[in-house]
Amino acid sequence: LFDxxxxxxxxxxxxxxxxxxxxxxxxxxSTPPDVFDIAGNGGNNRIIFINNGVKFIFAREGDxxxxxxxEFEIYSWQIFSYNExxxxxxxxxxxxxxxxxxxxxxxxxxxxxxxxxxxRSIAQDxxxxxxxxxxxxxxxxxxxxxxxxxxxxx
Length: 154
Hints:
The chain is α+β, with helices and mostly antiparallel strands. It is 19% helix and 23% strand. A hairpin with a 2-residue loop joins strand 5 (47-51) and strand 6.
């Protein structure tokens, strides 16, 4: 059985949105979840959370893919792959870092793109693969979306 913790109490998240579901035109909509189940503890007193059935952590100051991989006894390529990162991407404190492969579909039906969001950040927020987000929305890889666009997540 998992405990539930609001990320607002962790001082880690980059947003403090409300994850309650709203019915709009008979569709299930949401803002990204901000309350997560706890899967357990990792090294360095780090809490491992669950989002969309996938384990992740919140990055801390000084984290990089190599240190996180060592801490959780996985390969660095897995951190890069699971988080759709390149070797040039920088991990920032509060960022979700997945320790397992993300799902093809989210627990929510759709998401409306907000200002300053991109597809990668939306994929990270919902624990869904970036390639799946492109496929579900008939988008070409590399294309981005405008604020207000409704994206399918399932």
